[in-house]
Design goal:
The structure holds two protein chains of two kinds. Chain A is of the alpha+beta class. Chain A has ten helices and 29 strands. In chain A, the strands form seven sheets. In chain A, strands 2-29-28-27 form a four-stranded antiparallel beta sheet. Chain B is an alpha+beta fold. Chain A: This is WD repeat-containing protein 46.
Chain lengths: 591, 445
């Protein structure tokens, strides 16, 4: 990069740039180039100029580099540089153009906060360089497709603790199975269609509880921590604790088919066969809203982790977006011909992946509501799941395929593929692990997908290694900063922006809230006067007086307006004539 | 085939022994922390609510006076010492940490009108209704020693106020005229009059130490330079000012407490109109004192409340009152910027926190970090309607509440009337007069 900058300059006046250890190679190359060039030039010239150069550089050095007491100079002056992409990663807002006419106090405040934000951004970027773990990867040999590599081979190639993460649970009696990983990725919840429920610490393979509810189970979901989970059973919604003890049976939620848990809002969103979308606040145990979607049986659901909007897929090929604050869908998108089979949204809330009965897999930009890619899968995908690092897994029949980077470039081959022993019923990437959990007709398979999980977790948010005490503390803090359901919107950063509602808008809102217009002019009611002065005639006369006054006001205004427009028009004409006069260069020949 | 799968060594993430603190690895990636703004907003809301929950400003009541407390003085070098004088001529010295009286002396007959501690802190001066100025030793007299003043000056007229120079042995009194005294002499070195019959208070400027200002009973505020023989200039207002206080950080600014329920901040270079009008009291304002940082001041009022105003804000940020506190005569802001002291009619001195919800005592590092963080959040989200409503809400005594409502209605009516008059008169004949312009009658030089 240094050479590119210095290339157009004359070779002999070297601008001394700050030397960095990673620039050594560039420097070496440049020196070589210089040597070659210098050889071409006459010897005499060179010696003179080199002297001059030395002087120049010395001067510059003395200016730039601060000397230590020992006489040495700092070889790496200034703060260490930060790579630009890292800084970009921590950028929160686009910088807006400066607007003039700001109060001087406000200006200072804004510049201060900008500086603080910049400093925070740089610090975070600098800290990012020190993160301990790197993401996983899988590369084939030359001519070898990664999708042909079997799970056994991978498990053999990796270390023991990782290979133990590839395992099958043969549970053919009560399947097919739905599954859910807890937010830390430590705990796994399995729910068999025929009533079998098991939760386990899947890494140590310790069973926490195992029960049979003797009823069909539609879906299972962990709540905010691994101490509680919700089960959608045949009729009602139940909540159990990690020992398998039934805590609640919520009869307001009937025929639930799918569930999603919004961790920062402590809301459990459920959809039912009766086409109801309901929100349960699990911190206080109250139903927040129940929305009748009027779209028939609902069994396709996912949440947008970026803004906590619920996405529902329907039999007519539409995907609808819902928030608990509105009885109508926020957005309706026609995504497929034929029904939607599965929906998934990525972590950043940018991309939505859908699959439908038309055997297509489509990728949408959910911020702009634009289709990006469309793929045809011969078998069609029944289940979709997106990992933290953007890997997409799709289940086609009994084969689980994993795709990489589906949104940017059209993908032709899967990244990985694996055949399980029954039709796939549930699919989930484990957070913070390179593991994909597959629930199918014959039990559960945990397969290794290198590069799926986020390598570095945040200890204050979701810590897989947290102790019971830490979990309790986290729980208290999380409950304290529970976000109210009213704040769920398409753009979650809206709250931090300046409310630019105009006066009219605010006034309109006020009228709606109050039920009347507080600024409206009251109707004139003449005062009652004594001694016969409130006769009908005089009252009418007074009324007329007031009415005339109003009329006069209006007339005055219109006249003023007229005068102003007239003036403007004249000025315009004047200017136009001026311009036309200037324009013609041949005016001097006119007569 | 090359493969790498995430595999963490638990030893890197779990503490070694149970005596260590827990390891908390962080990753500040914004995509791992969704709903940043919403969560911060929730935190700010909680912090604001907690602030109101913990707002318990009243600390102690110092009782012992046998008549209303008329004046107070801070010790110039000791934080824990307070002097107070009452309407029966008694003077008490208080130890604020122990919250008790350490010394009582009968200083004057009639009111003690003013107390001031010499800048060195070894002696103090008092003036009273008995036309005397007395200098006292700060030390308690030895056993058997008489409680006697060091020095007594007999004046010709009643003194109503007193203030001492910041660095020199010079003090000023006011009564029928403003006198400058040398400590060594028994007659004033200089006397200022400007056709006024009496002054209510005089104050030295703490920065430009040769300047003085005084409030006169003819509704004027007069400025003096000690080095000159005549007063500098005066501003006449619509109502009388009771006391004034110089801003200790900005030499040119002073604030006066007025009878018309308002306080006015003036720039002494331009007295044509006040820089700011501070409204909120519902009765005459009797005393004012600036915080040592010069960013806020506290005012005491006849409406039985004390209020804290920011120096550049038109309305108070805080109001303190109790059921038992009567008309507040004098108020002081302690030199460590943490406490307020108010002396009132019903013979008590009250000690308040300057920041109502502040936790007293030593804070641990984590506590301080947490309070700083929540403070910043509160600042960031202060304009959100929900948060603003909670932060602004104060319970007021019924009388004050109704009176302020009444005042608001009156002000609105006056404004409406003026608007109507303007509407029905010749354009330009009824000029718009701002609130700041309304209260100044003339400036005389």
């Amino acid at each position: 990069m240094a050479s590119a900058r210095d290339a157009p300059m004359d070779s002999h006046v070297e601008n001394k740039t700050e030397s960095r250890y990673w620039q050594e190679t560039h420097k070496g190359e440049k020196d070589d180039n210089e040597k070659e060039k210098n050889e071409d030039q006459p010897q005499q010239n060179k010696s003179q100029k080199s002297k001059k150069r030395k002087l120049d550089t010395k001067l510059q050095e003395s200016k730039k580099e601060k000397k230590f007491v020992s006489g040495k100079t700092d070889p790496f002056p200034g703060p260490a540089p930060i790579p630009k992409d890292r800084v970009q990663k921590f950028k929160r807002k686009e910088e807006k153009l400066k607007s003039r006419n700001k109060h001087h106090k406000l200006k200072r405040l804004i510049s201060q906060s900008k500086e603080a934000a910049k400093m925070a951004q740089n610090q975070a970027a600098r800290f990012d360089l020190l993160l301990p773990e790197d993401e996983g990867f899988l590369e084939g040999d030359e001519g070898e497709d990664t999708c042909t590599i079997s799970q056994e081979d991978i498990a053999e190639a990796v270390d023991i603790s990782s290979s133990a993460k590839y395992f099958n649970l043969k549970l053919s009696q009560f399947g097919p199975y739905r599954l859910d990983y807890s937010r830390t990725g430590r705990h796994l919840l399995l729910g068999g269609k025929r009533g079998h429920i098991a939760c386990l610490d899947w890494q140590s393979k310790q069973l926490m509880c195992e029960i049979n509810v003797l009823e069909s189970v539609n879906d299972v979901k962990w709540l905010h921590s691994e101490s509680m989970y919700a089960v959608a059973q045949k009729k009602w919604l139940y909540i159990y604790d990690s020992n398998g003890i039934e805590l609640h049976c919520i009869r307001k939620f009937n025929d639930v088919l799918r569930m999603q848990f919004l961790p920062y809002h402590f809301l459990l969103a459920t959809v039912s066969a009766t086409s109801f979308l309901q929100y349960l606040d699990v911190s206080v145990g109250k139903e927040v809203t129940a929305i009748c979607t009027k779209t028939g049986r609902l069994d396709v659901m996912c949440q947008n982790p970026y803004n906590a909007i619920i996405h529902l897929g329907h039999a007519n090929g539409t995907v609808t977006l819902w928030s608990p604050n509105q009885k109508e869908a926020l957005v309706k998108m026609l995504c497929h011909r034929g029904g939607v089979r599965s929906v998934s949204v990525d972590k950043t809330g940018t991309y939505m992946v859908t699959s439908g009965m038309d055997k297509k897999l489509k990728v949408y930009d959910i911020r702009a509501f634009k289709p990006l890619q469309s793929y045809f899968l011969p078998a069609g995908a029944s289940c979709l799941s997106l990992s933290q690092r953007g890997l997409l897994s799709a289940a086609t029949g009994d084969i689980v395929q994993v795709y990489r980077d589906v949104w940017n470039t059209p993908v032709t081959k899967p990244y990985m593929a694996h055949r399980v022993r029954g039709a796939v019923w549930g699919l989930h990437f484990c957070p913070f692990e390179d593991v994909l959990g597959v629930g199918h007709g014959d039990g559960f398979t945990s397969m290794l997908v290198p590069g799926a999980g986020e390598p570095n977790f945040d200890g204050l948010d979701a810590n897989p290694y947290r102790s019971a005490k830490q979990r309790q503390e986290w729980e208290v803090k999380a409950l304290l900063e529970k976000i109210q359901p009213e704040l769920i919107t398409l753009d979650p950063n809206k709250l931090g922006e300046v409310d630019k509602a105009t006066f009219e808008q605010r006034h309109q809102d006020r009228i709606e809230a109050l039920g009347f217009d507080p600024l409206a002019k009251q109707k004139f009611v003449p005062k009652f006067k004594k001694k016969g002065r409130s006769s009908t005639g005089s009252v009418e006369r007074r009324k007329k007086q007031v009415a005339h006054e109003d009329q006069r006001e209006i007339i005055k205004k219109t006249i003023e307006q007229k005068i102003r427009t007239e003036k403007e028009r004249k000025e315009k004409n004047h200017k136009a004539s001026d311009v036309s006069r200037q324009k013609s260069a041949l005016d001097r020949f006119k007569k | 085939m090359k493969v790498k799968v995430l595999s963490r060594n638990p030893d890197d993430y779990v503490r070694e022994t149970k005596y260590d603190i827990q390891r908390v690895p962080r990753n500040y990636d914004p995509s791992l922390h969704p709903f940043e703004v919403n969560r911060e907003y929730t935190r700010a809301l909680n912090a604001t609510k907690l602030e109101r929950v913990f707002a318990k400003p009243f600390l102690a009541s110092l009782d012992g006076h046998r008549d209303g407390v008329n004046c107070m003085a801070k010790h110039s070098t000791s934080l824990s010492c307070l002097l107070s004088g009452s309407c029966d001529g008694e003077l008490k010295i208080w130890n604020l940490t122990k919250r008790d009286c350490v010394r009582t002396l009968q200083a004057h007959e009639g009111f003690v009108r003013g107390i001031v501690v010499r800048f060195c802190g070894t002696s103090f001066f008092t003036v009273g209704d008995d036309k005397t100025i007395k200098q006292w030793k700060m030390e308690t007299p030895m056993y058997g020693e008489e409680e006697e003043p060091l020095n007594t000056i007999l004046g010709k007229t009643v003194f109503t106020g007193l203030d001492h120079h910041r660095q020199e042995g010079v003090f000023a009194t006011c009564g029928q005229q403003v006198d400058i005294w040398d400590e060594q002499r028994s007659s004033p070195i200089r006397s200022f009059t400007w056709g006024v019959d009496s002054f209510s208070s005089v104050r030295f400027n703490p920065v430009e130490t040769e300047l003085l200002a005084s409030c006169a009973s003819d509704r004027s505020i007069v400025l003096y330079d000690m080095r000159e023989a005549t007063p500098l200039k005066k501003v006449v207002m619509t109502m009388r000012s009771n006391t004034l206080c110089w801003n200790p950080m900005e030499a040119y600014y002073f604030t006066c407490a007025n009878e018309d329920y308002n306080l006015y901040t003036y720039d002494m270079r331009n007295l044509e109109q006040p820089v700011l009008v501070h409204m909120d009291h519902v009765s005459a304002v009797l005393d004012i004192d600036f915080s040592p940082t010069g960013k806020e001041f506290v005012s005491a009022s006849f409406d039985k409340t004390i209020r804290i105003f920011p120096k550049d804000g038109g309305h108070s940020r805080e109001v303190y009152h109790t059921k038992r506190m009567q008309h507040v005569i004098c108020v002081k802001w302690s030199a460590d910027n943490k406490y307020l002291l108010s002396g009132s009619d019903e013979m008590n001195i009250r000690l308040w926190k300057a920041n109502a919800s502040e936790k007293l005592g030593v804070l641990t590092h984590r506590e301080r970090e947490a309070t700083n963080y929540s403070q910043k959040l509160k600042e960031k989200f202060q304009h959100h309607p929900q948060i603003k409503r909670i932060a602004r809400h104060r319970h007021l005594p019924k009388t004050v509440f109704h009176q302020s409502k009444e005042l608001r209605v009156m002000r609105e009516a006056r404004r409406r009337k003026e608007r109507n008059v303007r509407k029905h008169s010749k354009p330009g004949s009824v000029p718009v007069i701002t609130e700041r312009e309304k209260h100044v009658v003339t400036v005389v030089k």
